[in-house]
Amino acid sequence: MIVPVILSGGSGTRLWPLSRKNYPKQFLSLVNETTLFQDTIMRLPYDASSPIVVCNEEHRFIVAEQLRQIKSNNKAIILEPIGKNTAPAIAIAALQLLNNKEDPLLLVLSADHLIKNIKKFHESIKTASKIAEQGKLVTLGISPNKPETGYGYIETNNSEVCDFYSISSFTEKPNLETAKKYLDSGKYYWNSGIFIFKASSYLKELEKYEPEIFDICKKSCIKSPKDLDFIRLDNNEFKKCPSKSIDYAVMEKTHIGVVVPFDTNWSDIGSWESLWDSRLKDSNNNVSSGDVILNKVTNSYIHSSNRLIAANDLSDLVIIDTQDALLVSSKRGSQEIKYIVEKLKINNRIESDNHRKIYRPWGYFDSIEFGEGFQVKRIFVNPGAKLSLQKHLHRAEHWVVVKGSALVTSGEKSFKLEENQSTYIPRGEIHRLENNGNETLEIIEIQTGEYLGEDDIIRLKDDYERN
Description:
Layout: E1 2-8, H1 36-42, E2 52-56, H2 60-69, E3 76-80, H3 86-99, E4 105-110, E5 114-115, H4 118-132, E6 137-142, E7 153-156, E8 165-171, H5 176-185, E9 188-198, H6 199-209, H7 211-222, E10 226-227, E11 230-232, H8 235-238, H9 246-251, E12 257-262, E13 266-267, H10 272-278, E14 287-289, E15 292-298, E16 301-304, E17 309-315, E18 317-321, E19 326-330, H11 337-346, E20 357-360, E21 363-371, E22 374-381, E23 389-391, E24 395-403, E25 406-410, E26 413-417, E27 422-425, E28 431-434, E29 441-449, E30 458-461
Parallel strand pairs: 1-2, 1-4, 2-3, 3-11, 6-12, 14-16, 15-17, 16-18
Antiparallel strand pairs: 4-9, 5-13, 6-9, 7-8, 7-9, 8-12, 10-11, 18-19, 20-21, 21-22, 22-29, 23-30, 24-27, 24-29, 25-26, 25-28
């Protein structure tokens, strides 16, 4: 049996401002109507079991909702209190299965890759599975078609054509001259980050080469409580774990690692240039989405989220406009956008982590205006959902129902509000907002006070077991 393990902990900083820490690229619809995460689930082999998803705690409700949207079951959703790279994440999934007396083949996949030829993908998995059953650690190597500097490379001993090759070395993103030499040699493959091996085989090699990671992951799993549909790790233990990729921790050291060539159109969507490369283009070689008007523009990527972008006499640019940030970059330099995000973090700018629209397990809110002592939000509550029973120490709130029907708890009172009706929640008042109807509830919330941060919430009861 094959158990897919979907690694969904990335932050996708090079696709800022669309991708941000709390809503990264794997959860965005970048190439079609479904998200990269959903596409990863939907192209799994038909005979594979339900997947295990490993994700950050702050993404847990996004994962659950996106699985629900495509009607996908899951074997488990494992929550990492802090990202520790791929070696520990895979170990946690393997240990969970062995604890359940299972030792299947693990098909390890990143949640944010683009694979267009699904038939070839399944054929490569079938080939790799036969080799993995013999105790090998198998990775799929992408046959390179250009000297790409944004990918890691795997050197092999492919002196003759066969189904798989032993691994000679791994190389992180090379410069252009080195990448050209790799391409000319015919012995190098792009490192896809796709792995297939038995759970026990991986853990045995991890224990041999990284015993500290193995021991901490094992201790983290022993006290892993169930929280709704999620499995939580022992936070105190897992935070001690070294942060290492499976490449550095195991694959570069093991003597049982092999590469199965995977000759297809693959991308990790690691930059705006790679996304441009993967999308259909107009007659001027542009990719555009949203409200965009172009004149004498070529070889560019232009995205508008909410307003008109008019561009004239430009070439080889990336222009991304969101509700709270505008990015303009050369296409060739789009790999370096992560340094913009680093500067945002240094300056404590919320745009590094959050969009203006913030998703919650009950729905989402959009901060549409703010100033000295006030903030205005549009709040959307899903049918049957409710916010926590809470109070605020620093702010008061005024709610106006725009659409739907709201059940409001305010102090000792509980009452309904219909469209065009409103209520006032004083500072310090215990309150709750619920949607018992069949349509999405939309309200306008006007906050006033000396401090309006999201951490001014004291939750007394919460259906989603948040602190």
